[in-house]
Design brief:
Layout (H helix, E strand, L loop, with lengths): L1 H27 L4 H5 L7 H16 L6 H23 L3 H7 L16 E9 L2 E6 L10 H4 L2 H10 L5 H18 L5 E9 L4 H5 L6 E10 H6 L4
């Protein structure tokens, strides 16, 4: 008798499980509170530019405000959202953890309008010569590696939340390979180039964004060549 009852309940239990699974995936796919509470990088040029843009837009619309006011309001609402998110996802936390149905990264948080890209130069015969520039077929040393999706994301993070340790380690690796690839070089230089993206009309007009260099690192090529290969 018990076996028959369990057999009859089987389809209903499967339906409940599928419903629970779908609800859990939907709940856990909502934007993570960490993005709004401590992952935004509020002091970065990218976020500050967005706050200024919204302040100017609202002021033109007749709502007098400042970037600081908008930031404070967003932070307050973010704290409320974090509390609601925690309560909503709590019933599914254990299941998503053990099933692996989680997303461990955040996508499309905010448009990157102040990107950073790496530029590599070598000093030969008394002059600097570029050996890597993004989107350049002529200067493409280390281009295959830097176009890898993981390193593209890493370069993007330099433009958002700069990590000096990661940056120094990466540029030293690039410089060491450059020193060996260009035996006449006496110095290798790697820099982060930051610029503001152009408006659509400016891009269509063929304009080129102008930026500035940050975190320049210079290396004596002879010393890099003596280091053991990894």
């Amino acid at each position: 008798m018990l076996a028959r009852r369990m057999q009859a309940l089987g389809p209903h239990l499967r339906v409940l499980f599928v419903l629970f699974h779908v609800c859990g995936v939907v709940a856990m796919s909502l934007p993570a509170p960490a993005l709004f509470t401590h992952g935004m990088g509020w002091d970065t040029p990218n976020i500050q530019a967005e706050l200024r843009r919204w302040s100017e837009t609202l002021t033109r619309a007749g709502v007098t405000t400042t970037p600081a006011d908008i930031e404070a309001r967003v932070r307050r609402e973010a704290a409320r959202y974090a509390s609601a998110h925690a309560a909503f996802t709590a019933p599914f936390a254990g299941y998503t953890h053990w099933s692996g149905a989680r997303q461990g990264w955040i996508m499309f948080a905010v448009p990157q309008k102040h990107p950073g890209e790496l530029h590599v130069d070598v000093y030969e015969a008394g002059a600097w010569r570029p050996v890597y520039r993004p989107h350049s077929a002529e200067h493409d040393f280390w281009g295959r590696q830097l176009r890898n999706h993981r390193l593209r994301k890493q370069q993007g993070s330099f433009g958002r939340n700069f990590d000096r340790g990661t940056y120094d380690g990466l540029v030293r690796l690039i410089a060491r390979d450059a020193a060996r690839a260009f035996p006449d070089a006496t110095v290798v230089r790697v820099q982060l180039y930051r610029y503001a993206t152009l408006a659509p009309a400016a891009v269509r007009a063929g304009e080129t964004p102008e930026g500035h260099y940050l975190y320049s690192r210079g290396f004596v090529a002879a010393e890099l060549r003596e280091e053991p290969a990894p």
